[in-house]
Amino acid sequence: xxxxxxxxxxxxxxxxxxxxxxxxxxxxxxxxxxxxxxxxxxxxxxxxxxxxxxxxxxxxxxxxxxxxxxxxxxxxxxxxxxxxxxxxxxxxxxxxxxxxxxxxxxxxxxxxxxxxxxxxxxxxxxxxxxxxxxxxxxxxxxxxxxxxxxxxxxxxxxxxxxxxxxxxxxxxxxxxxxxxxxxxxxxxxxxxxxxxxxxxxxxxxxxxxxxxxxxxxxxxxxxxxxxxxxxxxxxxxxxxxxxxxxxxxxxxxxxxxxxxxxxxxxxxxxxxxxxxxxxxxxxxxxxxxxxxxxxxxxxxxxxxxxxxxxxxxxxxxxxxxxxxxxxxxxxxxxxxxxxxxxxxxxxxxxxxxxxxxxxxxxxxxxxxxxxxxxxxxxx
Amino acid sequence: xxxxxxxxxxxxxxxxxxxxxxxxxxxxxxxxxxxxxxxxxxxxxxxxxxxxxxxxxxxxxxxxxxxxxxxxxxxxxxxxxxxxxxxxxxxxxxxxxxxxxxxxxxxxxxxxxxxxxxxxxxxxxxxxxxxxxxxxxxxxxxxxxxxxxxxxxxxxxxxxxxxxxxxxxxxxxxxxxxxxxxxxxxxxxxxxxxxxxxxxxxxxxxxxxxxxx
Lengths: 379, 213
What we know:
The structure holds 2 protein chains of 2 kinds. Chain A is mostly helical. Chain A has helices at about 10, 20-25, 45-50, 60, 65-100, 110, 115-125, 140-145, 155-160, 170-175, 190-205, 215-225, 230-240, 245-250, 255-270, 270-280, 285-295, 305-315, 320-335, 340-350, 360-370, 375-379. In chain A, about 40% of the residues are buried. Chain B has one domain (about 5-200): Rossmann fold (3-Layer(aba) Sandwich), CATH 3.40.50. Classes of the chains: A mainly alpha, B alpha/beta. At the A-B interface, helix 10, helix 15, helix 17 and helix 20 of A face strand 2 of B. Chain B: Keywords: Endosome, GTP-binding, Hydrolase, Lipoprotein, Magnesium, Membrane, Metal-binding, Methylation, Nucleotide-binding, Prenylation, Protein transport, Transport. Chain B: It holds the Pfam family Ras. Chain B: It is a lipid-anchor.
């Protein structure tokens, strides 16, 4: 797996600094000439959009006064964070060394709550989320997007860690098998494995019905690459409650069945030939799409691109998983249609995951060109 | 792909989470131990052509997630499986105790004649053993399973497990007990389509090679 976007705050202690121009054009970003991601299903426009040159300085001039105000606020926020990250760094440093209690308290979140919710809706309007949240903002933005900054359950966290959970054994079995190639989680006594275990265990105690479900640790693992364990715990609780994840991970897994069914329906509607081919080869949707839904592409695509998708998921929910899924199939349709069941399995395992490595925006843009009608999905 | 084979068998690898199912499959296919893989979500797929009693057999193997709740996902893959590796971890009694449930599922959902080999994996961790060879062999005998202790780490008995299972299926085809042409048998003829196998048996009848179960 290609090297993930490991957290500089944790790994190297890189100072956080962001300038306005970074925000208006994150590195490598391709902006559609119209100034927003292409939502129209008109396929004739899509290649033009894909090959559009990188953002010009003029783009920031197109921002409305509201947006400019937000950027100013963010810059201010970032200065606060910069100061804060220093304290966080020293903390995580001492945690690593002492290996003692992992209770963390970040003052970042208290600063953050000063930002109003509309500000973040505005953030969405600027479309920065679809273009990728700048790495050093992910922790904050994710927390704000799912409204996880002021959760009472956070105060229970350290108590939960003292309790024992019936799922502990099960969780233990999976910890070393979650991002085993990622530096943060490597090694039996790594900080990563310890905090991952803590968060999974704490969650299993607050939600006895779901307890622990395989797959969810990849989501928590991603959160932990960006933020301390208490914050990751709160965000995970929110995702479970508000983003359909709890339904997906319940013991019956009925919601997964529903997602697969809905996805199949989209497939039939939008890629009918491919659908017929899949059927003729007994290539069931659940064979490839189960993990897409359960781990939000985190076990299927390399982390840099999967994290981009996760950014959008935080803002827009599960819809993006359907969109990306269809976009992937669309992109590969010509190849897949010529392969038998085994060939297709191979193609899914070996070829597709790295197709978008050199151009992360391509997949996101394509995903937004997929026709998706939320009302019809509800049926 | 220009591979030829006489038969294609559909196989399953089932058993509790963390017993080493994916590692067994990986060891079988790649001949090495993979110690840095993610836990399996849903199902994964692998295939390999082996040679068993002068026949080349392609195994199409479905590796499944082990957690109980994933059975709703993995069950649909049972249908039409000709063979299965039922895996437990010799260092975990819990995984051994779950075998009866797995067995019921497999017999109910796969083809009736599914050939199952019980694999006590992590044989290399003998110091932490919680399940003796003897009791597991008794269980295997009572339930008409073949049985081997395996190590995905060292590779010990891994190939054997797949080969023994395939051999037994071939024997059953040979003896007429299994009809590859029956729907859902989990068996297909390869391009080499040796249908003569079903005609009068040859002298060195494969059944002589009866596997030790």
